[in-house]
Amino acid sequence: MGVLKKFEQRLEGLVNGTFAKVFKSEVQPVEIAGALQRECDNNATIWNRDRTVVPNDFIVELSTPDFERLSPYSGQLGDELAGMVRDYAKQQRYTFMGPIKVHLEKAEDLDTGLYRVRSRTLASSASQAPAGPAAAPPAGGGYGYPPVGGPAGAPPMPAAPPPGARPGGYGYPQPAGAQRPPAAPGGRTRHWIEINGTRHQISRATLVLGRSTEADVRIDDPGVSRRHCEIRTGTPSTIQDLGSTNGIVVDGQHTTHATLRDGSRIVVGSTTVIYRQAEG
């Protein structure tokens, strides 16, 4: 059974169904859980052949209505999400530099149903940067480097990401002027999407996804509208909801319009679409 499915089942039994009532808003706990998984994947740092370190301190930013609805349960929900991250890390053979924590915060700029996830790596007082080919966990700690004591409060953030870490994200600001390298002269960007392992090349400026046989790419999913959304290639490429019933989720956020990057995950109905692009 997958980590997200087990997380959903645990949540169903909590507080005599209270969570089921609380999560009738657009923000669903499994979406947040999926976003935390992606945050780990996107910020995984390979220290050596035996150790890949991922963030352990997460902040989930919610709109004011969603935050007010969820804040009474933030402690229990945070614990469940942290447990899900631990399970996922075990599955992916990731490790942590400190205890896993998930916090909820209010963000005034978000509309109901939208959320953001930020993350950083906070080392416990007993954690050291890996040295040698196979650094061992701190004494007294099991998988994932659970708390091993130390002064109260969070340890300070390292001055810079560990070697090979991806810049940007919570705690690691994006370098000024950072951008993708320009394409080689005469080069051309190829665009395609992947659905359930099948590649669909995007050979025109627009690509309509939907359940209708008239869509450019037909998705046989009852949660997908006949003309659900449209991908527009360019610099940058974008996706636009076409007035669908269930909307679109791009990289963990409900939206009607979003910029796409290589690897962006688009959820329509219960189907996940991966957007890809490459030079040449």
Task: Please write out the topology.
Blueprint: H1 3-12, H2 18-22, H3 29-42, E1 45-48, E2 51-53, E3 57-62, H4 64-70, H5 74-92, E4 101-106, E5 115-120, E6 189-195, E7 198-202, E8 206-210, E9 217-218, E10 229-232, E11 237-241, E12 248-250, E13 253-255, E14 257-260, E15 265-268, E16 271-279
Parallel strand pairs: 3-4, 8-9
Antiparallel strand pairs: 1-2, 3-5, 6-7, 6-16, 8-10, 10-11, 11-14, 12-13, 12-15, 15-16
Helix pairs in contact: 1-3, 1-5, 3-5
Q: In words, what does this structure look like?
A:
The two termini are 40 Å apart. A hairpin with a 2-residue loop joins strand 15 (265-268) and strand 16. 29% of the residues are buried. The chain is built from 5 helices and 16 strands. The chain is α+β, with helices and mostly antiparallel strands and 280 residues long. The strands form 4 sheets. A 6-stranded antiparallel β-sheet has the order 7-6-16-15-12-13, with no helix packed on it. A 5-stranded mixed β-sheet has the order 9-8-10-11-14, with no helix packed on it. It is globular, with a radius of gyration of 20 Å.
Keywords for this entry:
globular; six-stranded antiparallel beta sheet; five-stranded mixed beta sheet; 5 helices; single chain; alpha+beta; 280 residues; 16 strands
